[in-house]
Write a structure and sequence with these properties.
Layout (H helix, E strand, L loop, with lengths): L5 E5 L4 H12 L6 E5 L8 H4 L2 H17 L15 H13 L4 H13 L8 H10 L12 H13 L4 E2 L1 E3 L5 E3 L4 H10 L4 E2 L4 E2 L2
Parallel strand pairs: 1-2, 5-6
Antiparallel strand pairs: 1-4, 3-7, 4-5
Helix pairs in contact: 1-5, 4-5, 4-7, 5-6
Length: 202
């Protein structure tokens, strides 16, 4: 099936990416994609996260996704955390425990967007690993080099937004859109889609 090879570029601290992951979960497709974590705000540090500008942007994005997906629970976290460690950890799990990767990815998303937890914290990530039934001691070191490779791959494609999906047919789905459009793309991937709702860069 095409869905087993569709690449999903997303960031854990993007609410649009959270909603897209929830839709994939609801359709039974979350474990049939290849996830490529993109740190779309690499400059994000605690001081910047607490700035008025970043806080206002976060509030706008939360309001937007609530309008687009009122059926999905989402809570506004206190801040938007840096996602580098979480992405690198998830990519390590993708390699070491591929059958657990989708579940862990969903749990990390939900830790931030439903429980307001700081996923930049090693302690929080260790707890989420435990929740997924994975012993942190058995997870390889966070794969920072692969995380950088994912970012460069996404950057070179010039999508300039997340979420972004690419099928083996070459078709792309850019932005969140709606659940029906996503399901249609996942089932055929024979056409490009550019949908509203995304975190943009550049």
């Amino acid at each position: 099936m095409l869905t087993s090879r569709i690449i999903v570029y997303s960031d854990l601290n993007c609410p649009f990416c959270f909603i897209l992951n929830e839709w994939l979960e609801a359709n039974g497709q979350a474990d049939r994609v290849r996830w490529r974590g993109v740190e779309h705000m690499p400059e994000l540090a605690p001081a910047l996260s607490e700035s008025d500008e970043v806080q206002a942007e976060l509030s706008r994005e939360i309001a937007s996704v609530r309008d687009r997906a009122p059926e999905i629970e989402i809570s506004r976290p206190p801040n938007r955390p840096n996602s580098r460690l979480a992405i690198a950890t998830l990519l390590s799990v993708e390699e070491a425990f591929p059958d657990r990767a989708a579940e862990l990815r969903t749990l990390v998303f939900r830790a931030l967007w439903q429980r307001g937890q700081d996923i930049s914290s090693p302690a929080v990530l260790a707890n989420v690993l435990k929740e997924a039934g994975i012993e942190a001691a058995f997870v390889p070191a966070p794969n920072v080099s692969l995380a950088q490779e994912c970012f460069e791959e996404w950057d070179q494609a010039k999508y300039c937004r997340i979420p972004a999906l690419r099928a083996p047919t070459g078709a792309t789905y850019l932005g969140l859109g709606d659940a029906k459009a996503l399901h249609l793309f996942m089932g055929s991937a024979l056409f490009d889609m550019a949908r509203p709702g995304s975190c943009t860069v550049g």
